[in-house]
Design brief:
The protein has 323 residues and is mainly α. It is built from 11 helices and 4 strands. A 4-stranded mixed sheet has the order 1-2-4-3, sandwiched between helices.
Length: 323
């Protein structure tokens, strides 16, 4: 990947990412239609329509689908509203991060302020994660909530140039609105995860677990299979979004600091100990500069890269050294 024409590359990557993101609602609606297609023929109406033309069957399915769309839309809007207004609190809770005071942290504040002036952007909030491991991430949906979070370890163990490069990487995520897109994608994945878990509990503790396999039970099983498929597809979309944008954030850091080798050196140190103890959720882990929960490092199996939230850190370092 070449880093000349960075702004053109950013625009192209943003376009591709928006197209991927648009696939999320398409997947939701497509799976809902498929649910009615698979379950209608087992219902009394479906059996009755068995003697009708194929077009009549499709009309019956479409009628049910169209009647369901408003309820789906209301549910998604409520889900997004909750995420929009509470995402910062949830992320802070999931990472045990807290506001960093300027007093005692002037070094960090000076680095962030200087970089923001260079980039012509508003200074984000700065959060501290009390952990000796080395990691950092950016988050937020708008100017009021944009935040850069740094671990105690990354502050203490990196020199000024390396720490500046890491902060520049995170500021690039904010400047390119990567954080907004990533959070929205995580919300979509959460919808499928919630539905799948609710249906699984219904099967485990409901009538099916007691041996009653009526039409309703079959519908729940079909819905669970489709929700699991949706979760897998949405997760792959989310991972693709994350991987694409790490390279651009690395390039943005090199552009801001004029020192790609500093970020390469920082990534080497981070790769030795990126695990943040407080981070338990995979969706939050993927927001970091290096996924603290990654388990497939140095894998030679290309299929595994589909489920990687970040490109291999060795590849990122190699590109930076050739910048």
């Amino acid at each position: 990947m070449k880093y000349f024409g960075l702004q053109s590359q950013i625009r192209r990557n943003n376009t591709n990412s928006v197209l991927i993101l648009l696939m999320f609602p398409v997947v939701i609606l497509g799976l809902v239609w498929l649910f009615f297609f698979l379950t209608t023929f087992n219902s009394p109406e479906g059996l009755q329509s068995g003697q009708l033309l194929q077009n009549d069957r499709i009309q019956l399915i479409s009628h049910r689908f169209l009647n369901t769309i408003p309820w789906i839309s209301i549910g998604v809007i409520i889900w997004f509203s909750v995420a929009w207004f509470s995402h910062s609190r949830m992320i802070n809770s999931a990472t045990s991060s807290r506001p960093m005071e300027r007093k005692g942290n002037k070094r960090v504040y000076n680095l962030v302020e200087n970089l923001c002036i260079s980039a012509g952007m508003q200074m984000p909030k700065i959060q501290l994660i009390e952990d000796d491991s080395l990691n950092a991430f950016a988050s937020g949906l708008n100017e009021k909530t944009f935040t850069v979070s740094l671990s105690r370890g990354i502050i203490n163990k990196l020199d000024d140039k390396e720490l500046e490069a890491v902060i520049a990487h995170e500021l690039t995520h904010i400047r390119n609105r990567d954080v907004r897109l990533l959070i929205i994608s995580i919300v979509f994945v959460g919808i499928f995860a919630f539905i799948a878990e609710a249906l699984f509990r219904s099967i485990r503790f409901g009538s099916i677990s007691r041996g009653k396999k009526d039409g309703g039970g079959i519908a729940v099983v079909v819905a669970l299979v489709l929700a699991a498929a949706g979760y897998l597809i949405a997760t792959l979309f989310r991972f693709a979004l994350s991987r694409k944008r790490e390279y651009l954030a690395d390039a943005g850091s090199a552009e801001l600091t004029r020192n790609p080798l500093a970020l390469a050196s920082a990534l080497r140190k981070i790769s030795s100990d990126p695990a943040i103890e407080a981070v338990k959720r995979n969706d939050v882990a993927q927001m970091f500069i290096e996924n603290p929960k990654a388990e497939l490092k140095n894998s030679s199996v290309s299929f595994s890269t589909l489920f990687a939230t970040h490109p291999p850190i060795e590849k990122r370092i190699e590109i930076l050294e050739q910048f």
